[in-house]
Structures are given as C-alpha cells and as structure tokens.
Amino acid sequence: MSTSAPVSPSNNFFRLQKRLQSAVGKAIADFNMIEEGDTVMVCLSGGKDSYTLLTILRALQERAPIDFKIIAINLDQKQPGFPEDVLPGYLSSIGVDFRIVEADTYSVVKEKIPEGKTTCSLCSRLRRGVIYRTAKELGATKIALGHHRDDIIETLFLNMFFGGTLKAMPPKLATDTGEHIVIRPLAYCAEKDIATYARHMAFPIIPCDLCGSQENLQRKKIKTMIQGWEREFPGRADKIFRSLQNVVPSHLADTDLFDFKSLSGDAGDVSDPLFGDEGSSAFDLSETDGTRIQFIRNLRDEAA
Ligand code: SF4
C-alpha cells in the first residue's frame, strides 16, 4: 500500500494552475508577445477561455520582470438576452481596468444574412473591426485573444480540409495594415485544462449561443475527430501542435517555400523516410547485410 499522502483536489488545482501559468509564460517568451510598456487589451467574451486568459495574465503581470498594463474589454453585440451586468460586475469585483463596448452587430447580421444561413463569418468580421477600432482608441499595443492549442489545431485541419492550405492560427500576428499586433497567450494550453480551471474558478460564464446561430458545424466535427484520436492515442493533439513548430519546407511541396528546381547534391538535409534515409538507426544493420542483398541479386542474374 502506498505511504504517500492522498492528493487533495486543491493540490490538483494548484498543479493545474501552475501548468497553465507556465504554458502561458512560455508562449509569451517564445513569441515575444508582451514587452516593456505594452498596453494589452484582453478581449473577454464571457466564455471559459477568455476568463482564464485574463486571470492568468494578471497573475503573471504581478511577478513579471517587465511593466505592462492590462485593459479588459467586452463587446456587447446586442444579442437578445445578453446579460449586460454580468461582466461589469465581475470585472469591478476583481479590480481590473475595463471597458464595455456597445456595438449592435446583431441587427446588422440579421439584416444582411438570410434566415437559416450561418451568420458567424459576417459577425466575426464586424467584431474584428470593432476590436481594432477600440484598440486604437485605447492606445493598446497588443490585442490578446483567448484562442488555445485546440483552436489552433482545429483551424489547421479546417484550412486543410476546406481551404486546401496548410495554415493554422498564429500565436502572434500583425494585422494587414500592420497597425495592430494580435497575441494568443493560451496557444500552448489544452482546452480540457482550461475547462477544468474555469470550473474550479466558477467564472460567471455567459452562454455563447445567444444569437441563435449554429456553432460552426465543420469545426465541431473536427473537434470530435481530434478528441477521438486523443482518446485512442493520448498525446496526439500535442504531437500535432508540436509539428506546427517543427516545419520542414524541403519535405512539403510548396515551390515558393523551397527551391526544388535548383536542388543539388549539396542541398543539406535531403533525407526521405520512404527512401530509407530516416529511422535507419532503429535497425541493427551490418555492412554485410547490404552485400548479402547484392549477392542474391547476382545469383538471379547468373541463373538467367
Ligand atoms: S455564434 Fe453568434 S455571436 Fe458567435 S460568431 Fe456566430 S453569429 Fe456571432
């Protein structure tokens, strides 16, 4: 029988909190997401991801060796039934600087999109515009969004399956005009960790289906696919994410990324697994093994 002390739920929670904080700290450092003097505008939807993002960023802010400001914003899109007191109440209670931005994107979307059609893409576009404008007005130097590792992986497959492109969702992005820098500090955090953390923290979650639109069905299917893989092969989602950080253009097929046309013998790493160039160290081959294969072929030549 084990003599070690039982692990209490609070120990598990502190371990989870530490894991999330380290993951966010590492993402910030790896991508140089936050710098001295930054004003980070944290976009809060009222969902588990953005609450977690704000909480962890504030915890890291307290002990960061650099000085930066945090302003939380929530966009009230005027969806029917939106509980407009929840976020102001919560944000006041934790003492964070915040703004509520009112923008009636709901009625614009309802007016422009025929009944029964998906409204998310126009809604997101309108929301993005308001977020950028608000960042400018507030003098924010960084816009922090609550997308996590699993959002990034799902986007990779969505783009592959429906867009024919190999691209995901970058942890750090300069907008088209170069005016804003968008950061995703939860990029290394697994969704299930965030969900557990949010449950423990009892954040006042605002449901995301107030607009009455269906959640993106294709994204849902991909999420189910990845969750199925993860159940069968634990760690697969992490492996997929790590592959995004370990890209080998010479082993893809994009002629803009790698100059295949001028490929020559001294091109460096040209290893090819199907050609036996990789993983050969897994077999214990002696020099005579090669000779034996050669010898058998000679016998066949003689018989002919
Ligand atoms: S679910 Fe509703 S609020 Fe969310 S992006 Fe789609 S249309 Fe907009």
TrEMBL record:
Its EC number is 2.8.1.-. Binds 1 [4Fe-4S] cluster per subunit. The cluster is chelated by three Cys residues, the fourth Fe has a free coordination site that may bind a sulfur atom transferred from the persulfide of IscS. Pathway: tRNA modification. Signal peptide: none annotated. It is an enzyme of class 2 (transferase). GO terms for biological process: tRNA thio-modification. Residues 40-203 form the tRNA(Ile)-lysidine/2-thiocytidine synthase N-terminal domain. GO terms for cellular component: cytoplasm. It is found in: Cytoplasm. It holds the Pfam family ATP_bind_3. GO terms for molecular function: 4 iron, 4 sulfur cluster binding; ATP binding; magnesium ion binding; sulfurtransferase activity; tRNA binding. Keywords: 4Fe-4S, ATP-binding, Cytoplasm, Iron, Iron-sulfur, Magnesium, Metal-binding, Nucleotide-binding, RNA-binding, Transferase, tRNA processing, tRNA-binding. InterPro entries: Rossmann-like_a/b/a_fold (IPR014729), TilS/TtcA_N (IPR011063), tRNA_Cyd_32_2_STrfase (IPR012089), tRNA_thiolation_TtcA_Ctu1 (IPR035107). Its main location: cytoplasm. It catalyses: cytidine(32) in tRNA + S-sulfanyl-L-cysteinyl-[cysteine desulfurase] + AH2 + ATP = 2-thiocytidine(32) in tRNA + L-cysteinyl-[cysteine desulfurase] + A + AMP + diphosphate + H(+). Belongs to the TtcA family. Homodimer. Catalyzes the ATP-dependent 2-thiolation of cytidine in position 32 of tRNA, to form 2-thiocytidine (s(2)C32). The sulfur atoms are provided by the cysteine/cysteine desulfurase (IscS) system. The thiolation reaction likely consists of two steps: a first activation step by ATP to form an adenylated intermediate of the target base of tRNA, and a second nucleophilic substitution step of the sulfur (S) atom supplied by the hydrosulfide attached to the Fe-S cluster. This is tRNA-cytidine(32) 2-sulfurtransferase. It comes from Novimethylophilus kurashikiensis. The gene is ttcA.
